[in-house]
Amino acid sequence: MTESPLVIWAVSDGRSGIENQVVGLAEAVARLAAQGGRSVEIIVKRVSWKSWIGRLPSAFNIMPRRWLEPESAIAAPWPELWIGAGRASLALSSRMRRWSGGGTFVVQVQDPRRATSLFDLVIPPKHDRIQGENVLSITGSPHKVTPERLAREYDRFAKKLDPLPAPRAAVLIGGKSRSFDISPARAEALAHELELALDQEQATLLLTFSRRTPEAARNIITDRLKSRPGLIWNGKGPNPYFAFLAAADFIAVTEDSTNMATEAASTGKPVFILKLDGQSMKMRRFHEDLEARGAARPFGGSFYRWTYEPLSETERAAAEVMRRMGMREKTATPA
Question: Strand, coil or helix: what is 81?
Answer without folding.
Answer: strand
